[in-house]
Amino acid sequence: MACINPDGSLTPSGRRVLLALPGPGSAEPMTIDALSTKSGVPIYRARASIREFLGAGLVSEDSFLYRRTAAAETVLEA
What we know:
By secondary structure, this protein is mainly α. It has four helices and two strands; from the N terminus they run H-H-H-E-E-H. It has helices spanning 12-20, 32-39, 43-56, 70-77; strands at 59-62, 65-68. Helix 1 packs across helix 2 and helix 2 packs across helix 3 (43-56). The mean pLDDT is 92.
């Protein structure tokens, strides 16, 4: 199950996962385990979502800690 539709919009589950991540310049970035818990998606789905969002430039990673990027904010506003 993809998080990003072919037209670039987010699927409902993709939106839920992306919203669970802290935004740029906000609280501490989070681990995939914390993302799974906060978003309510299974850990395998959180991992797949992170991979997809990293590839699309919607999430940044530093030492296995993740947060939304400014590009994600734009997608969420659409």
